[in-house]
Specification:
five-stranded antiparallel beta sheet, 21 strands
């Protein structure tokens, strides 16, 4: 009975418990469904605005990532990465060490090849940790999720971003296979900094930047170190922002993280006990790449110049793609700015290879000369405000320098000097600084055009006589150095101002400045076409060293202008050449003009204002050159060329002031430029002897260039009177445009000068007729007009003089001042070389702020052989011919 009661109670109790269990299960299921529905609804609400992405779109978003462009010297020599916020170089999975792949999978995604983009257990664990605000955050993102976060979404911390990440990760797994996802991950993930201090991403960039190895060459310890970095890139990277190796304690963070990765690899079976123990003992610190300068630190002028030119080219390419006429970029400022920005983004993020024409060896040699040259001039100080601290500080103000070497036939810029110190002044003085080009303008704007127009030949007479027009009265360096009628060759050789200005006045109405534009001068002002002073370099805005040198290369090319260039080609990340430079020649002067002016400028080096430069060369070649100095010695130039290359050099202060200071220490300004040009040309010879010597080639006269004898006074056919007076001269002419065939009009019937001839020679600028002949030439004319008996008496006197002993020298080869200048040493205190004291006006002398100029002038007045000082101010003359 008792047993039956117990059984009944048990059945009832069991039934109640079962029903209660069913109730709780039902409630739990309902609760789970309810919570799940709420969760699903909440999840749906989080992703409701996420568009349904197509396969092509997702693949494009994932596989399109920024890749840094590379810069190259000539010959494919690597220069470095283009400046960017992040460096990345793409690679493929088959070029990555298995050690890296195993380390990444063991550490970041153990079930990568098994899940479908997410691991639910890890998701719920992460959600629980987040809801409970747990101090331990283990993470739960798969490689696929990390790829979505980096390429499609952002690093924003929110449930909405996480929900989208989960949804897109599962979707991506349907569009890409596992190896594609892994390869993309290895290319996009950040890895801290490299040995230059730059931010880096991608396994190939990390391997190279941290260990100086390819990703395929990483050993187990190196792979583990790199695989551990992405968890906290800037904590675990071994380098600081300045590219220096971190201290011991900071490096320990990365090393400990490496050991954690090795532990995970061992735990998941990717490595054996032996491999694990060996890798733990590995001295990873010895493998870190040595800190090194960035390209913009080691080669700042080259890096910035290549980038600038590449942007201009890419802007044109992008404009063409958009159906725009590239010429609009030159004329529309806002459009130019827009496409320059687009070009900059394109180049810094799409992995282009940019090949330049810069010869690394030549460039290095020229920088070495620049750094060791001791005759620039005085360095001053100025006070500036520090942009970071706002405090005043003193900075150096040195004499700056700009130089460029160009290949004549192609326009290829082989090397250049951008300045003394990029940290002090970033302006590229070879390609960007615009200055007065002084007397280097004379062959370009005066003598070559006059030959081209058939006005003169090389030896034609020009007038070196003072004049005054509208209050402007220019002169040569020495005011009394007015030589009367001299040859064009002599006037150019000695850089006399007055003949150049007078000759220019005769051709200015033919707008020879248009030839400057054809020669690449890009900043001419309307006044530059009408001012007489333009003939001696007085430009309103000035000219760059590149432009000036490029114009001289036209003479070397037989009169054909070939624009200079520095970018040879640009190749995209797929290996397709998107740009390749093609040189184009444009005829500016005839071959005959080019040869004649070249022959005239040979004399500049042989016996004119460039003799010190010529004497400083350690090799011989067929060179022609021209020196130049602007008003008050604010600029000094020397541009020279052989059949293959042209070298232009400029010196001056950034804020123009006279160089004519402390000459006892630094020599005459024009001597300095002579010495520097020679040293730079010698460095070119050391780099490439064939270019420096033009392989022995010489300039040869083209058909039409003839040598003709004529009257040196009138420039016309030689008459008996002219020949008798001793003014016969023989020189080069272009027979196709001019020969001295007109009757000589220089003499009247009594043997004196014809007034009409004098008036013709003085031209519209006028001048003192008495100065038409120098004292020496007057003496020659007087001697020619003496009666025969007086001539016989003079001969007898000369014979008596010849019989007297010469007590001054036993050698007939007298060492003249000019010879002394050629032989003296630049460090001589007693006899400094002065090869280029240029011509100036009296007005210029008064304006000269140099305190020791007058003293130096007096000391060197009699021996100075430099005559190239211009009165180059933009207001020094007008075209008013009335």
């Amino acid at each position: 009975m008792t047993s039956m009661r117990w059984m009944k109670t048990l059945r009832i109790t069991s039934s109640v418990i079962w029903n209660l269990c069913l109730l709780f299960i039902t409630l739990a299921v309902i609760g789970f469904i309810f919570v799940g529905s709420i969760g699903a609804g909440y999840f749906a609400s989080l992703v409701k605005e996420e568009p349904l992405r197509a396969k092509a779109e997702m693949r494009s978003d994932i596989l399109t990532y920024d890749e840094t462009s590379d810069l190259y010297f000539a010959g494919g020599k690597y220069l470095g990465k283009m400046r960017s916020d992040l460096e990345r170089r793409e690679t493929t999975l088959d070029k990555v060490s298995p050690n890296v792949i195993n380390a990444v999978l063991a550490t970041e995604d153990e079930y990568f090849y098994e899940h479908n983009g997410i691991v639910p257990k890890a998701v719920f664990r992460g959600l629980l940790q987040d809801v409970t605000n747990s101090s331990t955050q283990t993470g739960g993102s798969t490689l696929t999720q990390q790829l979505i976060k980096n390429q499609i979404l952002t690093n924003e911390v929110s449930y909405e971003r996480k929900a989208k990440e989960l949804l897109l990760a599962m979707r991506l797994e349907k569009f890409m296979d596992k190896d594609e996802i892994l390869e993309a991950y290895l290319n996009i993930i950040p890895y801290g900094r490299n040995a230059s201090g730059r931010n880096i991403a991608g396994i190939e960039t990390a391997a190279e930047g941290i260990f100086n190895k390819k990703a395929s060459e990483l050993n187990l310890a190196q792979a583990a170190y790199i695989a551990g970095i992405p968890q906290s890139p800037y904590a675990y990277t071994p380098f600081t922002q300045q590219g220096k190796l971190k201290d011991k304690d900071s490096l320990a963070l990365g090393v400990n993280r490496m050991k954690t990765v090795l532990y995970r690899m061992h735990e998941t079976g990717y490595i054996t006990d032996k491999q694990y123990k060996k890798a733990l003992k590995y001295k990873i610190k010895k493998d870190f790449r040595k800190p090194e300068l960035r390209p913009e630190e080691k080669y700042p002028y080259v890096t910035y110049e290549i980038e600038s030119r590449a942007k201009d080219i890419m802007a044109t390419i992008l404009a063409k793609k958009d159906g725009l006429d590239p010429k609009r970029l030159k004329n529309e400022k806002k459009l130019k700015e827009k496409y320059t920005i687009l070009a900059d983004r394109e180049l810094r993020s799409k992995g282009y290879k940019i090949y330049s024409t810069i010869d690394k060896k030549m460039y290095d040699n020229m920088q070495n000369v620049k750094d060791n040259f001791t005759y620039y001039g005085a360095t001053f100080k100025k006070t500036v405000t520090d942009s970071e601290t706002g405090k005043s500080k003193q900075v150096d103000v040195p004499v700056q320098v700009g130089s460029i070497v160009m290949e004549n036939k192609t326009g290829k810029i082989l090397s250049f000097i951008g300045g003394r110190d990029f940290k002090l002044e970033e302006l590229n003085h070879a390609t960007q600084a615009k200055r007065s080009n002084g007397s280097t303008m004379k062959p370009l704007l005066v003598y070559a055009p006059a030959i081209e127009y058939g006005l003169i030949g090389a030896g034609s007479p020009v007038v070196d006589v003072k004049f005054n027009i509208n209050g402007w009265s220019p002169s040569n360096y020495t005011e009394s150095d007015n030589r009367g009628i001299i040859s064009a060759r002599e006037a150019l050789k000695d850089s006399q101002n007055l003949p150049a200005i007078r000759l220019y006045s005769q051709i200015m109405n033919r707008r020879p400045a248009d030839l400057l534009v054809k020669n690449g001068f890009s900043n001419l002002d309307a006044d530059d076409y009408t001012n007489y002073s333009t003939s001696i370099g007085a430009l309103k805005y000035g000219v760059t060293v590149e432009e000036n040198t490029n114009a001289f290369a036209t003479f070397a090319n037989g009169g054909k202008f070939v624009d200079g260039y520095m970018i040879s080609k640009i190749v995209d990340s797929d290996g397709k050449t998107v740009y390749k430079h093609k040189s184009k020649a444009k005829q500016v002067y005839s071959p005959q003009t080019s040869y004649i002016i070249t022959d005239m400028m040979r004399d500049v080096l042989k016996q004119g204002t460039g003799t010190t430069a010529n004497a400083g060369l350690k090799f011989s070649a067929d060179f022609a050159a021209k020196t130049g100095t602007s008003q008050e010695y604010k600029d000094v130039w020397l541009v020279g060329y052989n059949p293959d290359i042209s070298l232009g050099v400029w010196m001056g202060y950034d804020t123009p002031q006279t160089l004519y200071q402390y000459n006892e220490t630094y020599l005459q300004p024009s001597t300095r430029i002579n010495l520097l040009w020679a040293k730079l040309m010698n460095s070119v010879y050391d780099s490439n002897p064939k270019l420096a010597t033009a392989s022995g080639k010489r300039f040869s006269a083209p058909a039409g260039v003839v040598s003709q004898t004529f009257c040196g006074l009138s420039g016309r056919a030689l008459s008996s009177a002219c020949s008798k007076a001793g003014f016969s001269r023989t020189d080069l002419f272009n027979s196709q445009v001019m020969l001295p065939t007109s009757p000589d009009d220089s003499f009247n019937s009594s043997g004196g000068l014809n007034p009409d001839f004098i008036s013709r020679m003085l031209g519209i600028l006028g001048g003192d007729p008495a100065g038409i002949l120098s004292p020496k030439e007057k003496e020659k004319l007087d001697a020619a007009n003496k009666p025969d008996d007086e001539k016989d008496q003079d001969k007898d006197k000369n014979k008596d003089k010849d019989k007297q002993p010469n007590n001054n020298s036993s050698n007939s080869n007298v060492n003249t001042d000019k010879d002394k200048d050629k032989n003296q040493k630049p460090n001589s205190d007693n006899n400094k070389p002065t090869t280029d004291k240029d011509n100036t006006t009296e007005q210029d002398k008064d304006k000269d702020p140099s305190t020791d100029k007058d003293k130096d002038k007096d000391k060197d007045k009699d021996k100075d052989k430099d005559k190239d000082k211009d009165n180059s101010t933009e207001n020094n003359g007008t075209s008013n011919n009335n």
